[in-house]
Automatic annotation (TrEMBL):
Residues 18-166 form the Thioredoxin domain. Thiol-specific peroxidase that catalyzes the reduction of hydrogen peroxide and organic hydroperoxides to water and alcohols, respectively. Plays a role in cell protection against oxidative stress by detoxifying peroxides. The keyword Disulfide bond applies. One of its GO terms (molecular function) is thioredoxin peroxidase activity. This is Thiol peroxidase. Keywords: Antioxidant, Disulfide bond, Oxidoreductase, Peroxidase, Redox-active center. The gene is tpx. The active site is at C60 (cysteine sulfenic acid (-soh) intermediate). It comes from Enteractinococcus helveticum. Belongs to the peroxiredoxin family. Tpx subfamily. The active site is a conserved redox-active cysteine residue, the peroxidatic cysteine (C(P)), which makes the nucleophilic attack on the peroxide substrate. The peroxide oxidizes the C(P)-SH to cysteine sulfenic acid (C(P)-SOH), which then reacts with another cysteine residue, the resolving cysteine (C(R)), to form a disulfide bridge. The disulfide is subsequently reduced by an appropriate electron donor to complete the catalytic cycle. In this atypical 2-Cys peroxiredoxin, C(R) is present in the same subunit to form an intramolecular disulfide. It is an enzyme of class 1 (oxidoreductase).
Amino acid sequence: MAKTHFKGNPTNTVADIPAVGSQIPDSTLVGIDMSEVKLSDYAGQWLLVNSFPSLDTGVCAASVREFNERAANLENTVVLNVSKDLPFAQARFCGAEGIERAHTASAFRSNFGIDFGVELADSPMAGLLGRSVVVVNPQGEVTYTELVEEITNEPDYDAVMEHLGA
């Protein structure tokens, strides 16, 4: 299990985030149209997986907006935002915010949080996803990870973009 913090208090995840060099777990999520979304659907492209607790928080919403602007236009790159928000709420948020280039999917009935080691095991946020970024190359290999040290902080956008060559 990995450690992060929520409002300064230590909290654990259920496992470790995928290691750089490992193959990405092929989790199945639920798209905003209620269709199945498999991570293997993005094989052959760079995949930036941005996971977070809920779109109903300012920091989570900011990360979706920022990656939509900064990374979703990169060649052969897909941004996939993942939370346990219901697909209806995700669709409403994306429509209201003009999130058109990044993809969004729900882990509400998925093992994604366990497979990626980002499901929070304790704290008031137990059961939700921790804030993390995982970048996967077109061959399905993890090339970058960040489990944000403090859930109420945004990820290191510059490091992610530098990693993607932007």
